[in-house]
Design brief:
The chain is mainly α. 63% of the residues lie in helices and 5% in strands.
Length: 706
């Protein structure tokens, strides 16, 4: 197990090398003196490099810290030799930083930025002190990322119910968080990954607005509006895919506009990369990528001829999206599994039965309304996860801006693309019955790309009144972004962390001030100072991990939305021994939603536990717990016990809602299964397996004795 300081040093080297590689690669491709273009190209390259490198390393089972650090340093060195001197990378980076500081001299922008940054700082500190607290993070986002880190690469697994289709959810954003978990071998530094993704969103918002012709000040307003909307800030530490999707859509918009203006392949390559990223972070991005690809193809036919290297580069950057679709197609017969796709009433691709039932078919014949969704999106004022009432101002500005942009030849095509993205975003919500019967107050994240595009279109609207309208919008967003799901224990954890970090932060600020004429040295020195604080992050995090989970079980602590099934936290705590990892069999019955597979916390705070699902059937096939009647008929206790013995599993965990067949088997054989922990509500249970007793039982069965 790495020490906190060595893990922090590895994180600084790894992430620094990747960021510098992204800056060099993006700058080399974009070929411009524009700081905005380089910034956006750097974000595209950072996303693309992380995903491409992950597929390369993970496919070889080489996604290890030492290999990742070595690969990233080698890549940064090669790019520095090939590209760095040609573009004068260090002077260019210094000049870009100076330009950014100049742009921040607007008192209004600076004041709003500082006010909003306090909210971001609070959420980041909470993310450093608290464990992950969101449904999808605990069920699959961080579970996938954690298992990749554990297994040093890809780790597919067959399991029933929700995990049967979680396995095929697009992995783009999960890969970003896997890079965040790699240095510490756990979630200690995940908050920095969330913060980095948020900064990328800020850059993308500014760039998209500038690309459509907004002034620097209005582009600044657009960036802050996108970055501080509650749908973004409330999910800052969630590990969800929605902020990466918003970011990549805005980056695609920016480079699509530049590719049309510049009529060269380099901008089109960056646009294709951004579109490919859209399609690999969330399935909602696939139609957006297809639309953008059609626009790129149309322009390529009408523009100057492309050379073979440029065509190959375009195909290569787009190919980052292909692997998960190809895998799903090969293994399930559908590239968009688990969603069903039909055309004219004819099924083209079948979906996962349980997924389709949950989101669509369970509501057949029931009347529903989409109105609560829009109401929560705009009018909810407490703990909102939508946009807030100031969205009405944004829509007014967007209508005016879109009208102007559509009349301009230069911006017409990309504006039409943006309008189609808005339509697709809202149409996807209307098409899912679940939004008419539930999820009303948390669905704002599903239409974040639409909101981002409305903002950047509105930023092109001119007039004195806009200098009043935008600050009102941003101030309203900041107020609605103040976190609500903080209990007393969260405040204690953040306060304790802040007290410990304050001397290091102060020293880093002093060092940076004295070295301000040499930005690179200032950043390096400040980083070295902050490395010394890493042990305090782990100390606070370890002390408050389970008290915060206990508060989450009592609905006093949450992040974005209160979570269910956190009442299993005593089991998570009992099995969390960083010095001695365990091998766990995990099962969970059907709860009609599928969000009860809280397996991530069972990995342990240092990802030391190995999890697996053990089939109940004689032939090892998987049967969903939703089909309890069928499962009961085909379940074979002896086959299940034999597999437990052969796999040498130390514990069996039965998660809520307390209806698994495995739980009945274990309670019926107390000589083999010893209860060691239970959830506070009695819905989840953990048993230790006595393998000596289990082997004796299996020997008796082999001799024909029950």
């Amino acid at each position: 197990m790495t020490t906190p300081v060595s893990a922090a040093a590895a994180a600084a080297v790894l992430w620094g090398a990747l960021l510098w590689s992204a800056f060099l690669l993006g700058s080399a491709v974009v070929r411009t003196s524009s700081t905005t273009a380089r910034g956006c190209a750097t974000v595209v390259a950072a996303y693309w490099l992380k995903i491409a490198l992950f597929w390369g390393l993970a496919s070889l089972q080489a996604f290890r810290l030492e290999v990742a650090v070595g690969t990233s340093l080698l890549l940064a060195s090669i790019l520095q030799i090939i590209v760095g001197r040609r573009i004068q990378a260090i002077p260019t980076a210094r000049r870009d930083l100076a330009r950014i500081s100049t742009a921040l001299k607007s008192p209004v922008l600076l004041g709003l930025g500082i006010a909003g940054s306090l909210v971001i700082l609070a959420r980041t500190l909470r993310g450093l002190a608290a464990p992950p607290l969101t449904w999808d993070a605990l069920t699959y986002h961080l579970l996938k990322a954690g298992r990749w880190v554990q297994n040093q690469g890809l780790a597919p697994e067959a399991a029933p119910d929700a995990w049967g289709y979680y396995e095929y959810y697009l992995p783009g954003s999960d890969i970003l968080y896997a890079w965040g978990m790699l240095p510490a071998g756990g979630d200690a530094f995940l908050a920095f990954t969330g913060l980095g993704i948020w900064i990328g969103c800020l850059v993308a918002g500014f760039g998209a607005a500038r690309g459509l012709g907004a002034s620097i000040e209005h582009a600044g307003f657009a960036a802050l509006t996108v970055a501080f909307v509650p749908g973004v800030t409330q999910h800052l530490m969630s590990a969800y895919a929605d902020i990466p999707l918003l970011t990549t859509v805005l980056l695609a918009l920016y480079f699509l506009q530049r590719s049309g203006r510049a009529q060269n392949a380099h901008e089109a390559i960056l646009a294709a990369a951004a579109l490919g990223l859209c399609a690999t972070v969330k399935l909602q991005g696939l139609p957006i990528a297809i639309l953008g690809g059609i626009l790129l193809f149309y322009r390529a036919r009408r523009g100057p001829s492309w050379k073979l290297p440029e065509i190959l580069a375009l195909l290569a950057v787009s190919a980052v999206m292909l692997r998960p679709y190809l895998r799903a197609w090969i293994e399930t017969g559908s590239p968009i599994f688990p969603i069903e796709f039909a055309l004219g009433g004819v099924e083209i691709f079948s979906g996962h039965e349980e997924f389709m039932w949950l989101h669509y078919r369970r509501f057949e014949g029931q009347e529903g309304s989409i109105f609560p969704f829009y109401s929560a999106l705009i009018t909810q004022l407490r703990d909102t996860r939508g946009f807030g009432p100031t969205t009405l101002i944004v829509m007014t500005l967007a209508l005016a801006g879109a009208g102007t942009l559509l009349r301009q030849t230069e911006t017409r095509a990309v504006t039409a693309f943006g309008i189609l993205v808005v339509v697709i975003s809202f149409a996807s919500v209307h098409a899912i019955p679940m939004f008419q019967h539930g999820w009303h107050d948390s669905a704002g994240r599903y239409v974040l790309p639409a909101f981002g595009i409305l903002v950047v279109m509105g930023s092109t609207t001119r007039g004195r009144w806009t200098r009043i309208a935008w600050p009102v919008v941003i101030a309203g967003e900041i107020l609605l972004s103040i976190p609500m799901g903080w209990s007393q224990v969260d405040l204690e954890a953040v306060t304790g962390l802040l007290v410990r970090l304050a001397p290091f932060l102060g020293l880093a600020a002093i060092v940076s001030w004295f070295l301000r004429k040499w930005p690179i040295w200032a950043m390096s020195a400040a980083t070295l100072v902050l490395l010394g604080s890493a042990s305090f992050i782990r100390e606070v995090r370890d002390a408050y991990r389970y008290p915060i989970y206990a508060a989450a079980a009592a609905k006093r602590s949450w992040d974005a939305v209160p979570i269910l099934y956190a009442d299993a936290w005593p089991i998570w705590s009992h099995l969390d021994d960083p010095e001695n990892g365990s091998r766990l069999a995990v099962t969970a019955s059907w709860d009609r939603v599928g969000h009860n597979w809280y397996r991530y916390p069972l990995l342990g705070s240092q990802l030391q536990n190995q999890l697996t699902y053990v089939p109940l059937t004689r032939d090892g096939s998987i049967v969903d717990y939703r089909r309890m009647g069928e499962l009961t008929r085909v379940a074979d206790e002896n086959s299940w016990l034999t597999r437990l013995s052969e796999m040498d599993l130390e514990y069996v965990v039965s998660l809520g809602p307390n209806r698994t067949l495995e739980l009945g088997f274990m309670r019926a054989r107390p000589g083999i299964f010893e209860p060691v922990a239970s959830g506070t509500s009695g819905r989840s249970h953990a048993f230790r397996v006595d393998h000596e007793a289990l082997r004796a039982h299996l020997r008796r069965l082999a001799r024909g004795h029950p």
